[in-house]
Every structure is written in C-alpha cells, then in structure tokens.
Amino acid sequence: MKYYIIAGEASGDLHGSNLIKELNKLDQNAEVRAWGGDLMQSVGATLVKHIRDLAFMGFLEVLLNLGTIFKNITFCKKDVLAFQPDVLILIDYPGFNLRIAEWAHKKGIKVHYYISPQIWAWKQNRGHKIKKYVDKMFVILPFEKEFYKKFDMDVDFVGHPLLDAVEQFQSEKLSFQRFTEQNKLDEKPIIALLPGSRKQEIEVMLPQFLEMVPQFPDYQFVIAGAPAQTPEYYRDVSKESKVRLIFGKTYNLLMHSSAALVSSGTATLETALFRVPEVVCYKGGWISYYLARMLIKVRFISLVNLIVNREIVTELIQGDFNSKRLKKELQAILKDNNRREELMGNYDTLIQKLGGKGASSNAARLITEDLNP
After folding, report:
1. What is the residue-averaged pLDDT of the chain?
2. Which option is the CATH number for 2-159+358-371: 3.40.50.2000, 3.40.50.720, 3.30.559.70, 3.40.50.150?
C-alpha cells in the first residue's frame, strides 16, 4: 500500500515515525511519502518537506507567512496526485491539514486523521468539516471520544503514543554518570530548559528561562535543542550564557533532571511522563494573546492539566511569566518535598487517564484494516 503522511511539527514527526514503524510491520510492501522531519525519514519515509520550513506560531506569524503557506498547499496537492496514495494520513497541524483533507475527499482519496486537532480548545465548528471530509479519526486523549459525539462521529481512541515512546526509551536509558560524561556536564543536579521548537517561541521563552541561571547556582541548566534549529541559533538567542545545549537527547535529559521549565505543548506531557516536576510557561505577542483569550474555550494551556481537568502543574501565562514568579515556582518544585510528593501522585492519576499502551500499533492496525476490509 502507498501511504502519504503529513505532519507539520516536531511532535508530529515523533508520532509519525512510530506509526510508520508499525505500518511497516503490518504491510511489508508499505511505501511512505511524507511531510515531517528526521525521525520519519530515519524509518524509511521519503521526505517531501521538512518541519523546519512548516511551523508558524501565532495569528500574526501565520498572516505574515500566508504566501509560503499557500504555495505549500498548492505543491502538496500536486505531489499527492502524482503519488496516488491508497490513503492520506494527517497528523494534527489543522490549519494546513484540514484544507488538504477537504481537497483530498473531493478527489476521492481516502482520508485518515491520526491525532485530532485540538478543536475542543478553539474553533469547535471545525468538527463539522472533519465529519464531512475525514473517513477515520484516531484520537489520543480520553475526553476526545466523547467530544466528537457532538458531531455524531464515532472516533477511535487508540491511547497516547507518548506512553510507548517513554517506555521504550526507559529500557535503553543511560546512567546519570554516563549521560553527564557524554555531554560534558558536571555533577550538579540538572534543571532542563524546554523552550519550544519554533524560532518565535524560543526567542520569547529562552531569555526568560536563562534569567534563572545565576539565581540557582547549585544547579546546572541544560537546554534541549529543537531538531529544526542549529547550535549557532541558540548561541545568538542565549548571548553569552554558559548554559549547556544538547540535541537529540531530550528524553535522557528529562530522565536525569530534578526539575524543568517547559513551554506549553507536547513537552509538558513528556515531562510529566518522566515524572519531572515542571513549571509550564507561555508568552506570545499581545495581539495574538488577546485574540486567543477571546477564542480559546479551555481552562488550561498544558496537556497535563487538561487531561486531569485541574491544575496540577503551575502555568505562568503572559504577564505572569516573569522572573519573580518563575523563581518562586521553580524554588517550590525543587525544595518543597510536600509539593513534589503531591505532584508525583497527580502524575500517577494522569498516566491512568491516558489509557493503555500501544497507540501507534492500534492506529496502524485500524488503518490497514480499513484499507483491507
């Protein structure tokens, strides 16, 4: 079978790569063409466009790059038609993927969606478009199955793929000593910095994170580099900071961290699954922020709090994301034993709500079963 997969961000590249692994197990003749990143390419996908050229953050940033986005849409349609896939598999990335879904449906191409856009947070009316143009929807958050009933859709909850990714990693983990030796770190406890994957995000989050470095001299701060960025870029953003930067080892970093400062997104959930106390942070352009406040229909910005439906990790948003608050919250998760114990208990609850393992294999099975009824 021929599979055309579109992911537009780093998390989509991760989940897409694991899905491809499982498709290859079930279909020895699988041919995959994809928009994604290094991970999808490493498991055999022919890469068409790289995620580093696809991710735009915020209302204004999208408007400023509309020309590029529309060129990508036009190119994508031509490339899909040339490939003639048996199925088009879309991974999140709704602004782009929903346009392609509508077009593909009208062309008679089967459309599967793996990892629902977060329409429950905003733009809920997109549910009508999904019902009309998507043949199969595979969701990874437990509350999404009930949400889609609003649109008379029976979607498949497959579990969360991060459970598998984290478990697989934990079986291959490095010791703290080996990790620090390999990355030229010292013996101080580690505070991980995860400022996001996109330039607009990093340039806002990282400088504020780095203000904590001189205030916690007993710890070493380590930046998890995004695969789409370069060491030179981080040096420009961090100026003269002596903070270490590592690429491709985020899970090892989390495994050995005492705490983490995390930009909102999938990383908030990954950090929790490694049972690392975290402070979740977000700051955008003021216009984008106020527009979002008017449109977003959920109480929290982190997946951790959304899934449990209460605030178990602190969220510092916009004006609250400042040096004073950040220092206070970081101090609390490092030094307050009661706070840390409470967090661990809440993380247990989170993991239970995410369901069982095997999301990628469940999705691959359902995809191939639909193609071979």
Report:
1. 90
2. 3.40.50.2000
